[in-house]
Amino acid sequence: MTEKARPVAIVTGGRRGIGLGIARALAVSGFDIAITGIGDAEGVAPVIAELGMLGARVIFQRADLADLSGHQATLDAVVAEFGRIDCLVNNAGIAPVVRGDFLDLKPENFDTIIGVNLRGTVFFTQVVLKAMLAGEAQSPRSIVNITSVSAAMTSPERLDYCMSKAGLASFSQGLALRLAETGIAVFEVRPGIIRSDMTAGVSSKYDGLIADGLVPMRRWGSPATSGISSRASPAENSASPPARSSRLMGVYRSVGCETALSGCEIFPSPRVQPENWPSPRSRVEGTWLTRGKGRQPVGGDTRHLT
C-alpha cells in the first residue's frame, strides 16, 4: 500500500520566534515544511535538523518578503521540492525601524514596515494562492495570517506597526470571504506580548508592565503557545462550514471571522451565523470577550499597548 504523502506548509520567517514555534507544531502534526527568510542557509541548519527529528522533511528558501520580484522564484523552489502546497503561514514581520512620536515618523521607515508586514505578505499570498487553486486539493488547505493584538489595540509610539497589522487583519477577513467557496480556509491569529527576538530589546519594559497587570494572566506569551494555537487550523476538514469559530488553547480561530486572543475583541463577519458564535461571554486567557451590537471593549478596558 502506498504511503499517503504528507501535507506541505510554507512558514515565512520560520527560523525563530513565533514562526519556529509554529513550524515545530506543524512538524509534530505531520507536515513537511518550507521555511523562508532573509537569513543564510548555514544559520538555519540547526532548525532544519531539529524539525527533521520531529519527522518533517524541511527546506529553507532564502527570500526577502519585501522584494515582490522574488516571490515567484520562492514559490517555484518549494513546489519543485515538494510538488504541492497545502498551507501558507504568513508569520514573517518586522518591528518599527524606530519607536517614537508619530510626528517624527519618516516616510522611508513607514514604507519599510508596510513593505514587509503588509505589502509583501499580501502579494506573496497572491502568488501562493494562484498555485494552490491551479491544482487539485490533496488534503485540507489553508492560509494562516499571524497578525497581532496591535491590530486592534493602539500603541502611540509604534503606529506604523499597528497600521500594518490592522491592514493584515482586514486582508484576512476579505480573503476568507473570497476563498469561502474554494475550500481553502483562512485563519487569523493575534498573538499578544510574546517573548521573542522581536521583543528582546524591550523585555525589561514589558516585564514591568505585565507585572502591573497589562496582561491579565501576568505572564509573557511564548512561541510554543502560538504554534499550538495555529497548528490545528491547517488540519481542519475542508468540508467544514467556512464561517465556523472554534476555541483552541485559549485562542479563537475562525474562518470568515476575526480572531481574538486575550486583550482583543471578536466581531463576526456577515457570513457568521449566530449559532456558530462563541458563547455570549467567553473567558479567554483571563480576559472577557463580549459579543453584541457594535465593537465592545474587552471588560471595559480601553488601555493601549506601549
Features of this protein?
alpha/beta, 6-stranded parallel sheet, two-stranded antiparallel sheet, 10 strands, globular
Could you please describe the fold and organization of this structure?
- With about 300 residues, the chain is α/β, with parallel strands linked by helices.
- The protein has seven helices and ten strands.
- Helix 4 runs parallel beside helix 5.
- The chain starts with 7 loop residues before the first strand and ends in a 16-residue tail after the last strand.
- The model is unreliable at about 225-235 and about 235-305 (pLDDT under 50).
User: Largest sheet, order of strands side by side?
Assistant: 3-2-1-4-5-6
Question: Which percent range fits the helix content?
Answer: 25-40%
SSE pattern, N- to C-terminal: EHEHEHEHEHEHHEEEE
* Quaternary structure annotation: single chain
As a percent range, the share of strand residues is 15-25%
Low-confidence stretches: 226-233, 235-304
The biggest sheet, with number of strands, parallel, antiparallel or mixed sense and barrel status, is:
6 strands, parallel
Secondary-structure content class: alpha/beta
What is the number of helical segments per DSSP (H or I, 4+ residues)? 7
